[in-house]
Amino acid sequence: MSKPDKRDFEERYAACFVDFAVKTTVGLLIGSMMGSFFLRSYRRWPMFIGGGLGFGMAYTNCEHSLNDFLLSMDPKACVIKKQP
Fold first, then answer.
1. Which residues are CB-neighbours of 47 under 8 A, at least 6 positions away?
2. Per-residue pLDDT at 57
3. Using N-to-C axis directions, what is the helix angle for 9-39 and 45-71, rounded to 10°?
4. Is the CB of residue 47 less than 8 Å from the CB of residue 35?
5. Residue 79 counted as domain residue
6. Could you tell me if residue 40 is inside a domain?
7. Which of 27, 28, 30, 57 has its CA 20 to 30 A from that of 43?
8. How far apart are CA 41 and CA 28, in angstroms?
9. Where are the transmembrane segments (predicted)?
10. How many domains are contained in the chain?
């Protein structure tokens, strides 16, 4: 089994922005290369599909990472008390 992730919320949140930038950029680059190699002309739709796929993968990873952290917290510590 993999060992548990010990990062706090701010570190995970900052890592999400880096993940978004890297995966979206790589998706745009791969989409433009595939479009130019296979379509023999400059088309924009493969770039948009590649960028969208990269953005979607980054969003899923970020959501999973943040939800793991938030669900592992003690629920009793997050209770808001009512005022009398």
1. 28, 31, 32, 35
2. 94
3. 160
4. yes
5. no
6. yes
7. 57
8. 16
9. 20-39
10. 1
Range of the domain at 57: 9-64
Taking phi first (over 0 means left), then psi (-120 to 50 degrees means alpha), and beta for anything else, what does residue 40 get?
A: left
**59 assigned to some structural domain:** yes
pTM comes to 0.73
User: What one-character DSSP code corresponds to residue 40?
Assistant: S
**Do 43 and 11 touch, CB atoms closer than 8 A?**
no
> pLDDT of 67-78, one tens digit each?
887 777 766 655
Q: What are the C-alpha distances in Å from 69 to residues 10, 28, 40, 56, 72? A: 11, 30, 46, 20, 5
